[in-house]
Amino acid sequence: MSYGIERFFLLSYCLACCWPGLGAKSELRIVRQWPELEFVFPNEQAYREATDKRYYVPGNSVPIDVDVHHRQGDQKSRIFITIPRFDEGRPMTLGTVDDTGRVSAYPDYSWHENQGQNCNGFTSVFRIAIDECNRLWAMDTGKIGDKDYCPPKIVAFDLATDNVVYTHIVNASSYIPTSLFITPVVDVRKRGTDCSDTYVYVADVSGFGILVVDVARNRSWRITHRLMFPYPSRGTFTIDGQSFDLMDGILGMALSPLRNNGIDRDLYFHALASTTENVVPTSLLRNESYLHDSNADPQSIKVFAEERPNQAAAEAMDRNGIMYFGLMEPPSIWCWNAATEFSPRNFHQLAVNRETLQFASGVKVVNNLKGEQELWVLTSSFQRVMTDTLSSNRINFRIHAEKIKALIENSPCKNSPKERHGSHRYHANLITPSRGYKSGTYKYGAVSYL
How far apart, in whole angstroms, are the C-alpha atoms of residue 162 and residue 156? Predict the structure, then answer.
């Protein structure tokens, strides 16, 4: 019996053999890949209706995120992907991937078929998160393209039963008209089997803020700060010779391991249109005072002095405080040990491939049934999506995976400085406030003054 990633690799090897250009060296293995996504419909009538109404347009669907649930016994592990509804033609927005690569709606097709006309189902999901309590959290934007159909909401499923165990509809006071909630990370302070102390932090990529959901009290609030905004000078992306502009704010987020005897942890984050990395204690985010004022003190969130060579999308951190992220150029996956200074000299390449590792929009650390951690990455030809040059004559989307132990076995990321062993927050503590700052009123955006 296999307990994790091995369940997928025989098939992935066969798939890789069928396509040219995949022999380039990469420490990550390809698990699934597609020229375009194919879907499983519940019956022929559902398929015909979806095509007639243009709910399904072949070639329009673009996967963005991936997560994996390893199950006990003879039950197959499940790969989940998200397919945001940027426009028409996406028949489902969250699904599982079968052995042949076909996507089935999760939890079932009835959640997806109404395309925003039924707010009890899903409208559009960008990213998901599976927590240590075997719950899948899906953040529904409520939008298709730029059009609002439903209030944004977050839904949690018990993966043992696939039943809904929590729903939170975001209050109108916690978002603005431009808000687009795309990246949830789940902070569980587990006591035995009790998972009630849970907060979810969600990136608002175009509202330039963080949504904080207090699950136990079923409430939420918004936090905004200048470091959640995009940097205009970093808004142009070039991948495989194609360029596009995208002024996205906060997108990549990763939670550190617990520190201070389990009292607190840090949230690392960055805007897509940026090369910086920022850090904030979650104790600050969990402060209910933001119910009354969403503006964070300018000095409460820190930015590291040095920057990445170019932009990154998603990121994730393992139990040892090692962060994983992709870079746009060259298309590659890197690691950084948070016990070292955030600096290019401490970034270490784990995999590089100009064809297969373009635009890593989904990065997850997954625990398998042996207690090992795995890195899962979803990559895509996103530059071709943005420039309208996507073609089904080539592979456009891939899911990669590998055990973290194997990935970093010979990497400097594996070793923390001796004097700071286990202190993954060491350099975050050294960031000093900006000189000349005077305490006073702080607002973000002209709307704050209205």
Answer: 9
Q: Which residues of 230-250 are buried (b: 16+ CB within 10 A; e: fewer)?
A: bbeebbebebeeeebeebbbb
DSSP conformation class of 411: S
Rounded (5°) CA angle 308-426-231: 30
For residue 171, give both structure tokens. Answer: 């209050």
Over its C-alpha atoms, the chain yields an Rg (Å, rounded) of: 21
Q: In what order do the strands lie in the sheet with 315-317?
A: 315-317, 322-327, 332-337, 347-352
pLDDT in tens, 46-96: 999 999 999 999 999 999 999 999 998 889 999 999 999 999 999 999 999
Contact 424, 415 (CB under 8 A): no
Helix (H) or strand (E) holding 252: strand 250-255
Nearest to 171 by CA among 153, 156, 155, 185: 153
pLDDT for the residue numbered 261: 77
Q: What is the mean pLDDT of residues 251-273?
A: 93
Tens digits of residue pLDDT in 202-245: 999 999 999 999 999 999 999 999 999 999 999 999 999 999 99
Euclidean distance between CA atoms 386 and 31, whole angstroms: 25
Residues in a beta bridge with 156: 137, 166
Q: Please tell me which residue, 156 or 422, carries the higher pLDDT value.
A: 156
C-alpha distances out from residue 328 to 143, 251, 348, Å: 27, 15, 15
Q: What would the two tokens of residue 444 be?
A: 């973000």
Q: Which two tokens stand for residue 369?
A: 């049934």
Tell me the CATH number for domain 6-433: 2.120.10.30
pLDDT > 70 fraction of the chain, expressed in percent and rounded: 87
> Amino acid identity, residue 281?
P
**CA 273 to CA 418: how far, in whole Å?**
35
Rounded distance between C-alpha atoms, residue 22 and residue 42, angstroms: 34
Amino acid at position 234, single letter: R
